[in-house]
Amino acid sequence: MTSCSSTLVAETAASASAATVVVVVVVVVVVVVVVVVVIVVVVVVVVVVVAAAVAAAAVAAAAVVVVVVVIVVVMVAYQKQQQ
């Protein structure tokens, strides 16, 4: 009876240990997945912000070009009017 009891205790301890290992593995996998998802979201947000900044810079550059062209056209027209 004692050997049966000690075998049962050993099996229970082994199954508890296996269950603990499974829980730890699941927790580690979940943490890794969450970290990867957070990193991906941060990268996507950074890419979107950089793209928006580049687009804003392009719009500003286009506006500067338009203003310069208008100034040149007005100056040329003024010079022709003076002649």
TrEMBL record:
Highest taxon of source: Eukaryota
Keyword annotations from UniProtKB, A to Z: Membrane, Transmembrane, Transmembrane helix
Transmembrane segments annotated in the record for this chain: 21-49, 55-78
Protein name listed in UniProt: ABC transmembrane type-1 domain-containing protein
